Amino acid sequence: MKEMKAPLSMSTQPGGNPATSDYLRDPKLDAFRPGGLIARWYRLTSPPEPPTEASYRQRDIYRRGQLASTIMLALAGILCLVIPIGLLGPNKQILIVVLGLLVLIAICAPINRKGKVNTTGLILSLSLNLGICSSIIRSPGGLAPDTIALFDLLVFSELFVASLLPVNWVWASALFNIVFSFVELTYAPRTPLFATIMAHSYYTIVSRPIQLHLLVTVVLFLWVSNATRAIKRADRAEVIASLQHNLANLEHAEVEQKRRLEWSIGRVVETLTQWNNGNIGVRIPLTQENVLWQVAGSINNLLNRVQRSRQEAENLQRMNGAIARFYEARAKSNGDAILDWPITNTPVDILVKQHNVNLQRMNGAIARFYEARAKSNGGAILDWSMTNTPVDILVKQHNTQAQLGVESGRMADRSVPQRPMRSTIQPPHLQSLDEERPDWRTHR
User: Fold this and answer.
1) CA dist 123 to 128, 129, 172, 175, 213, Å?
2) Which of 138, 102, 120 is closest to 45 using CA atoms?
3) How far apart are the first and last CA of the chain?
4) 213 within 8 A of 152, measured Cβ to Cβ
5) What share of the chain is helix, strand, coil (3-state, %, to 5)?
6) pLDDT band at 249 (very low <50, low <70, confident <90, very high)
7) Hey, which residues does 143 pair with through a beta bridge?
8) Which residue, 48, 56, 259, 281, has most beta carbons within 10 Å?
9) What's the CA gap between 111 and 130, in Å, rounded?
10) Would you put residue 144 in left (φ > 0), alpha (ψ -120 to 50) or beta?
11) Model-level pTM?
12) Which pLDDT does position 218 carry in this prediction?
């Protein structure tokens, strides 16, 4: 026979089709699936599941609460089957007890949901025990042979107590059931048939429920005690395993953090070494996920500031050197020569350029001035265009003096008609020209 593989669930099958995957599911597990009947019942009546780091007490409450939820569901199903007996049988007290237990189950469900498991177990145990006792006490006609079976049902209360309450409480439930059975079988009213049976088999009938309760109570006490100790050991082992796992994770995290810290320190040392060797543009390459990211950011900011300060110092030093060279070159040229200036990439280059341009303009304006003056024989008004140099002021003064000379000459011609004699007194503009350029007559 070929080995059959378990089919994938709908959540793991790529492109699963509900129509083709429904028949692959195990119908026995449908009730326990998230959408099954039992799972819905647990969500309504069972305490919420505690977290993984919960204590033993919290997990024990969850375990007993889920067990109480299961018992309530099973008990409700059994009681529904007993309802026809109460309706059709002679003892109508059974129907009242069944309906009362169903109401108590509906009350205990939200109580159990809140985690009050002891309260739920106490209500269920007492209600079941009192219901059975009331059915026995209120039997029509007294105790009958078929009523003896109801004494055996008192064992269910002991099962409920052992399962839902602390295990020591089972002794109190057993003692109550034994005393009730003895008193009821000894002193309760009986039917004639049952009285005849009791006259011959009193010890056998009375000892039967007593032996049953003692045997069940001892077995339940030992079983629940051992199970509780085993659960505690398993819980302790689980806690120890969880602690060991957490310690292992912490050790691994510490080793990883140490490795990353050493790597980060190496990057910082390497960056600072390159900086000291002259590579001022290097920075620490650490991201936000790194341990020393904040330290690296502070160091990078410090390196940026040092780099800017160094660049500013170098620029200032280059500026001072350029200024000193400018004044030295200007002193050597007596301020009237064009400077031969290399590019220094400082504002002094602009100053030198302006100096050379202004000097060239000044020299050109002076040359034009002497040329125009020579053409006008020194006495005519010069036709001059503005050059935005000091020569414009000199030309303006020259033209003013020439205009005054022309007007004085015209006035002299009108008053003295004869030819004037050559005067040895020079006009003011010629005197100023003699003072500025003594050799102008030679050039002329």
Assistant:
1) 8, 10, 15, 18, 20
2) 120
3) 137
4) no
5) 75, 0, 25
6) very high
7) 190
8) 56
9) 20
10) beta
11) 0.49
12) 93
- DSSP for 148-193, written as a single string: HHHHHTTHHHHHHHHHHS-TTHHHHHHHHHHHHHHHHHHHS-B-HH
Sequence-ordered alpha helix ranges (H) in 4-92: 18-21, 37-45, 56-88
Asked if pLDDT for residue 348 goes beyond 60, the answer is yes
Look up residue 250 and give its two tokens: 């912490």
Residue in the block written with tokens 């309450």: 165
Q: Which DSSP string corresponds to 96-155?
A: HHHHHHHHHHHHHHHHHHTT-HHHHHHHHHHHHHHHHHHHHHT-TTSB-GGGHHHHHTTH
pLDDT in tens, 57-74: 888 888 888 888 888 888
Quote the CA–CA distance of 14 and 39 in Å, as a whole number: 26
Q: In the prediction, which pLDDT does 431 show?
A: 54
List, as own/partner pairs, every contact residues 61-66 make where C-beta atoms lie below 8 angstroms and the sequence separation is at least 24, other chains included. Answer: 61/115, 61/117, 63/231, 64/117, 64/121, 64/163, 64/164, 65/112, 65/115, 65/117, 65/120, 66/42
Per residue in 40-54, pLDDT (tens digit) is 888 888 888 888 777
The residues near 325 (Cβ < 8 Å, ≥ 6 apart) are 344, 348
Going from the C-alpha of 277 to that of each of 274, 306, 317, 389, the distances in angstroms are 5, 15, 22, 54
**pLDDT grade for 261, boundaries at 50, 70 and 90:** confident
Amino acid 396: pLDDT:
75
Strands (E), 333-394: none
